[in-house]
Design goal:
The chain has 625 residues and is of the alpha+beta class. The chain contains 25 helices and 17 strands. Helix 2 crosses helix 21 and helix 12 runs parallel beside helix 15.
Length: 625
C-alpha cells in the first residue's frame, strides 16, 4: 500500500484506553477520494461510528479525536492543522482549523495526522518525534493555563532532546496543540489551542480532548517535508501566491482586526452589540488604529511560512488591567469579547479575550454565552445572587470573572459551560421562561460575528441555516461552489489543509493548480464541487440531522436563523431592516436542489448512488419519514 506525493506516508492512531500505538496507511485511491483534513475525518467517522451515531456521546470515550494535515500543508503559504470529531456543540461533524507550527513539526516527524480513541486512566500528553511516539504523564500539567502549559512542555521536551542528542544544535520549541482548564472540565465551548492565543474553537473539541484525559499532543520533526510530484511547479506557484499575499496591505498590517469598527459602522451595520440587540455603532474608540497605538507590542505574530502574518500580539502594560496578553484581537474576538459585551475600548477587549485564551475557551462560543448571560441579567432573568456579582454591559472585570467560573464550571458557570443553546434550555426550565429568543445559534453552534439583517455583510439569508457546520461563519451554505466562503469551497481549504486567509480573494485556479503540482493527481475544482466535496458535505449533513444523544435537528424547524434576526434593526442608518422569512425558505430550497438534495436538505437517492454513498440511504430513509 502506497501513499501519494505530498503525504508523509502514514497516520498515527493512539488508543488511550489500552495505550496502543499503531501506524495507519491508506491507498492512493482512498486518498484521492478523501484527501485529508475534514473530508478524511468525515469518512472515518462515518465508517467507524455512523451506524451508531445517535448513541455516541461526543464527550464519551467512544468519540474519535482527529488532528490532521492535508497534502498541501507545509507547501502553501501559512500553516494550519484540522481538528475534527463528533462535535459536542452540534452533535454533527465540524472541521475546525488552527494556525501554528504543529502541523509542520508533525509532518516532518513522519506523520500526516493523529487519530485518538479511548480514554486515558490519568492525564497524559502524546509526544511524537521522527516516527517515535510516547504517551507521557501530564498530571503535573493538568489544571495549568495556556502559557503555563506551553512553558512546562517546552522545558520538558527540550531538556529531553538535549539529554538524548546533546547540544550539538539549538533545539527550537516543539509544535504543541493543547487544552486549558475549560477543556479539562469538558466545556462544550472549549478550544484546541496553539501558541498562547490561537484556537480551533468551532466544534468544542477541547472538551473532547479533556474527556479523554488528553492535555496535549506534542511534535518535533527534523526530517524534510515529503517530496511533491512537481517540485519546480510547486515552488513557482508558491512564490506566486506569496506575492499575492504581500499585496494585501490592510491584511498584513492589521489582520481582520481592521474590521472591529468597520463592520459595526454604516459600512455594514452587522456587528453583534449587547448580544445582538443591535448591530450598528459609531464608536471610533474601537478603531484598529487605537489598538495599534495603545496595546500592540509585536506587529508580526505570524506562523511559519506565512507572508501575511495577520496576527499581532497585544499586551496591557499599565492600568488596572495590566498584564493581559493576547492576539490583536482579530475581528471575531473584537466583536464577541468587545462590542457584544458593550465594551468599546481596546484595553477591556484585550483583558476579556486574554482571560478566555488562558483558560482555553473559544472566543466566539464563549463571547456568545457571555453576552447571553449579560442580557439575562439586564432583563432580570439572572440576578446578582445567581452569578455572585453584578454583570453590567461594558464591565471587563465582571466579564473576566464570568469567564473564570464558566471555564472552571463553578456555580452557574457549570450550566453556561454547556454553550448558549443548552444553557438556555436548562436555565429556561429553572426560571420557568422561554429563553430561546435571546440565543443566537444554529444547531447548537454560536454564530460568527457577521449579521444578516443589514443585507450588506453576508448577503445570503439562508447561509447559516443551511451550513453543514451550523453557525460557522466560514463554511457557510447557500453559496455557489466557487465563492470563497461556502461549505464546498471552505471545506476544501479544511481538507487540503491550508490557510483560507491566504486564499480568499486570490486566484482559486492557482490553488487547484498547486494541488495538482503537489499530488500529481488530475483533480479539478469541478471534481471537488460535483463529487469529492459533495460526498463530504452529504455525510456531514446526514450525521448532523441524526445528532444525538441529547439533541437532534429537525430540518423543518432547525434549518433557520435565530429568532432575534427576524426582529427589525433598532438603530443606525438601516433602522427597521430585517430578514424576510419567505426569502429564507426559497433560498434554502434552491440551494439544496443545487446539491442534489430534496427541499428539506436530505440527499436524494439518485445523488447518493452517483456519489457511491448508497450506505447512507437506510439512515436517510428514516429521516425522510
Amino acid at each position: 500500500m502506497s501513499m501519494g506525493n505530498g503525504y508523509a506516508g502514514k497516520f498515527l492512531e493512539v488508543d488511550l484506553t489500552d495505550e496502543k500505538i499503531v501506524d495507519l496507511r491508506f491507498s492512493d485511491d482512498f486518498l484521492k477520494n478523501w484527501i485529508g483534513g475534514r473530508a478524511l475525518a468525515t469518512k472515518i467517522l462515518w465508517d467507524r461510528l455512523g451506524k451508531n451515531w445517535a448513541h455516541i456521546d461526543p464527550l464519551g470515550p467512544e468519540n474519535i479525536f482527529f488532528a490532521l494535515t492535508g497534502p498541501m500543508t507545509g507547501y502553501y503559504p501559512g500553516m494550519r492543522i484540522c481538528i475534527c470529531g463528533k462535535s459536542p456543540q452540534s452533535n454533527g461533524i465540524i472541521g475546525s482549523t488552527v494556525a501554528g507550527e504543529f502541523a509542520l513539526e508533525l509532518k516532518c516527524a513522519g506523520y500526516d495526522g493523529v487519530i485518538v480513541t479511548g480514554k486515558a486512566k490519568r492525564p497524559v500528553y502524546i509526544f511524537i518525534k521522527n516516527g517515535g511516539v510516547e504517551i507521557r504523564g501530564a498530571s503535573h500539567i493538568w489544571g495549568k493555563d495556556g502559557k503555563q502549559t506551553i512553558r512546562l512542555i517546552n522545558k520538558e521536551v527540550i531538556a529531553g532532546l538535549e539529554s538524548a542528542h546533546g547540544r550539538e544544535r539549538m533545539w527550537r520549541e516543539p509544535g504543541i496543540i493543547y487544552i486549558g482548564p475549560a477543556g479539562e472540565n469538558r466545556s462544550r465551548m472549549a478550544a484546541v489551542c496553539q501558541k498562547w492565543t490561537h484556537a480551533a474553537g468551532y466544534g468544542g473539541y477541547g472538551g473532547v480532548m479533556g474527556s479523554k484525559n488528553l492535555k496535549a499532543i506534542v511534535a518535533k520533526g527534523t526530517g524534510p517535508l515529503p517530496e511533491p510530484f512537481d517540485m519546480e511547479k510547486t515552488i513557482e506557484l508558491r512564490n506566486k501566491m506569496v506575492k499575492e499575499c504581500l499585496k494585501d496591505d490592510s491584511m498584513r498590517r492589521w489582520g481582520t482586526g481592521a474590521a472591529g469598527y468597520f463592520y459595526g459602522s454604516s459600512a455594514y451595520s452587522s456587528e453583534p452589540i449587547r448580544n445582538w440587540q443591535e448591530e450598528w455603532h459609531d464608536e471610533e474608540s474601537f478603531g484598529v488604529d487605537r489598538f495599534e497605538r495603545r496595546v500592540w507590542v509585536k506587529h508580526y505574530w505570524g506562523d511559519y511560512g506565512c507572508p501575511t502574518t495577520c496576527l499581532k500580539l497585544s499586551c496591557l502594560r499599565d492600568g488596572p488591567l495590566k498584564g493581559a496578553i493576547t492576539d490583536n484581537p482579530d475581528y471575531e474576538i473584537q466583536a464577541y469579547m468587545g462590542t457584544n459585551l458593550g465594551i468599546f475600548e481596546p484595553e477591556g477587549n484585550v483583558y476579556v479575550a486574554s482571560m478566555s485564551d488562558d483558560l482555553g475557551l473559544c472566543g466566539i462560543q464563549a463571547g456568545n454565552v457571555l453576552g447571553f448571560a449579560a442580557e439575562l441579567y439586564q432583563r432580570g432573568f439572572l440576578t446578582k445572587e445567581d452569578l455572585g456579582f453584578e454583570l453590567n454591559w461594558g464591565d471587563p472585570v465582571a466579564f473576566g470573572k464570568l469567564v473564570q467560573i464558566v471555564a472552571r464550571r463553578e456555580g452557574i458557570g457549570d450550566i453556561l459551560a454547556e454553550g448558549t443553546f443548552r444553557a438556555a434550555v436548562k436555565l429556561g426550565k429553572m426560571k420557568n421562561v422561554d429563553l430561546q429568543p435571546y440565543v443566537v445559534h444554529v444547531k447548537g453552534v454560536s454564530i460568527g460575528a457577521h449579521g444578516l439583517r443589514s443585507g450588506l455583510d453576508y448577503v445570503n439569508p439562508a447561509g447559516y441555516a443551511t451550513s453543514v457546520q451550523g453557525g460557522d461563519h466560514t463554511s457557510v451554505g447557500d453559496f455557489s461552489p466557487d465563492e470563497a466562503g461556502g461549505d464546498l469551497n471552505w471545506g476544501f481549504m479544511d481538507t487540503a489543509v491550508i490557510c483560507a486567509f491566504n486564499v480568499q480573494s486570490k486566484n482559486l485556479g492557482a490553488v487547484w493548480e498547486m494541488f495538482r503540482a503537489i499530488t500529481g493527481w488530475p483533480t479539478t475544482s469541478e471534481d471537488w464541487n460535483n463529487t469529492l466535496g459533495l460526498r463530504m458535505v452529504s455525510i456531514q449533513r446526514t450525521l448532523l440531522l441524526i445528532g444525538g444523544p441529547d439533541y437532534s435537528w429537525n430540518p423543518d424547524k432547525d434549518d433557520d436563523n435565530p429568532p432575534r434576526w427576524y426582529e427589525p434593526l433598532p438603530s443606525g442608518p438601516l433602522t427597521g431592516k430585517t430578514l424576510d422569512k419567505n426569502e429564507v425558505i426559497d433560498r434554502k430550497k434552491t440551494y439544496y436542489e443545487s446539491l442534489g438534495w430534496d427541499e428539506r436538505g436530505i440527499p436524494k437517492v439518485e445523488t447518493l448512488k452517483r456519489l457511491g454513498l448508497e450506505e447512507l440511504e437506510k439512515t436517510l430513509d428514516r429521516l425522510r419519514k
